[in-house]
Amino acid sequence: MYRARLSLAFAALVALVCIQAALVYWGAHRVNDYAQHSRLASDIQAELLDLSANKQRLRVWAMQRLMNADAQPEQRERLVAAMYASTANLEDLVRRDLALWNELVRREGVSMPAEVPQLVGVTELLHDNIKAVEARLAQLVPLEQGADFPALWGELTQVFDMARGRDLRELINGAIAHQRAAVPVARAATERGLDALRGQAIGLALVTLAVAAALALHLTRRLQRPLARLLAGTQALQAGALDHRVATGSNDEFDRVAQHFNAMAAELQQHRARADAARRGLEDAVQARTHELSAAHATLQSLDQRRRQLFADLGHELRTPATAIRGEAEIALRGGDKPVDEYRQTLTRIVGGVDQLTRVIQDLLLIARAEADGLVMHTAPADLRALLGDAAEQAAALGASHGVQVQWLADAHEGNGARLPPEDSVTVYADADRLRQALVIVLDNAVRYSAAGSTVRVGVYGVAEGVEVLVRDEGIGIDADEMPRVFERFVRGRRARAHRADGTGIGLSIAQAIVQAHHGSISIASVPRQGTAVRIALPVAGASTK
């Protein structure tokens, strides 16, 4: 019901606005035509006056030329050019004025003045007259002694004033007089049109305002009572009275709104009940979470204690080679002079200790740079097969002392990996020294944690994203509960500690940092007492590393 009333009210207002817009558009279009006619009449008059003035200046120039006065040809050419320009502008203005009059005749039924089409013919005569004047003045020379000046001047006057047997002075003066009379008439028509347009706009605006006020008053009276009921309901809800209900029964749009309002209030009551229950559950969950956080805090304290212990162990790792170096030096300095060979052996042992200390320090620096995102890679195209071959040779030399064989599989492939031809090089964009260091760490672990008589196999094969290096041993393996922590720093598994007492537990952390700096990945799969497989995936040169 209210929706229909509102629709009718809006439709009436829109109709009034459309009528007003149409009348304003029509009136504005009409006024614009009159204003344009006034401008054209004024412009035509100005061009005719300029044309007459320039022709008069040419007469003066001709007189000066005949009298052998200062009559420059450049002045004549400038005046002729100005007359041509005025004639061209006049032709354009006359055509536009004729078209405008044709539109006024068609639309309003007025009669066209006879001077309008006549002026079109005048412009054509003007063009021919200017050509004749230009040609005659170009031949004009100063008069000789005893020449017949009146006859010559009469000839020039005929050239200036006549075209196709018609007197141009009379035509131009008549046209100027007509335009002078037309300008005030057009301006008066424009003013009348503006007054009519202003009156129509004001009248329609007043009608629209009156209709809008009447509709607003009617709708306000009809809407006041249901809106008051709804406002009382919202205020009750705001005060927390969720059991308040709005009265219904009017069978209109507001009745449906009241029904939805009551349903909303009932739902809010249910939500409040559920929120209270949820709050109580949240309090229980917070209490439980507090217990979990307490346990996590205890775990963190334990981890901190372990970290301190690991740093203490690391300090021991640094002190051991330092103490050995100092001991060797003190022994060499103690007592009298010794043979050169003994000094050489001492210095050799000192150099070995320094190398061990340097490696530990370099490993610590590399881990620190990786944590601070400051690990710089000097990348260049490198042959992965050559790097892996060098690492395998170093591992083979270590394995020989442990009774472990290192087997290089030049055409390895596994699962979805594609076999690479042995003779093809595998180019990666990498820091060769750093990548070789990571490969040596993985192979060194495979050899050190393998039993004597076992074999470590290493190979490279293609995958969809690039290439993958596979290192598989038959060693002690890693327990399942320790797998998530294999890449943590200073972490050594139970089997590793039982197999070898030495080691800092940072090798795999270093390898992971180097591989990730090359936009690759490293993963480990292991079965206790059966062996471990390490996969290093790297993008090939030219692949995207984003």
Write structural notes for this entry.
The strands form three sheets. This protein has a five-stranded mixed β-sheet, covered by helices on one side. The protein has a two-stranded antiparallel ribbon with strand order 1-2. It has 546 residues and is α+β, with helices and mostly antiparallel strands. Among the domains are: 2-213; 375-538, Histidine kinase-like ATPase, C-terminal domain (Heat Shock Protein 90), CATH 3.30.565.10. The protein is elongated and about 145 Å long. It contains eleven helices and nine strands.
Structural topology:
Layout: H1 2-66, H2 73-108, H3 115-138, H4 149-161, E1 162-163, E2 166-167, H5 168-238, H6 253-333, H7 340-371, E3 380-383, H8 384-402, E4 405-409, E5 427-430, H9 432-448, E6 455-463, E7 466-472, H10 494-499, H11 507-517, E8 521-527, E9 531-538
Parallel strand pairs: 4-6
Antiparallel strand pairs: 1-2, 3-5, 6-7, 7-9, 8-9
Helix pairs in contact: 1-2, 1-4, 1-5, 2-3, 3-4, 3-5, 5-6, 6-7, 7-11, 8-9, 9-11
Please provide the count of β strands.
9
The rounded Rg comes to 54 Å
SSE pattern: HHHHEEHHHEHEEHEEHHEE
What share of residues is helical? 55-70%
Mean pLDDT: 78
Largest sheet: 5 strands, mixed
Report how far the terminal alpha carbons are from each other: 63 Å
Q: What gross morphology would you assign?
A: elongated
Derived structural class: alpha+beta
Query: Regions with pLDDT < 50 over 5+ consecutive residues?
Result: none
Portion in beta strands: 5-15%
Strand order of the largest sheet: 4-6-7-9-8
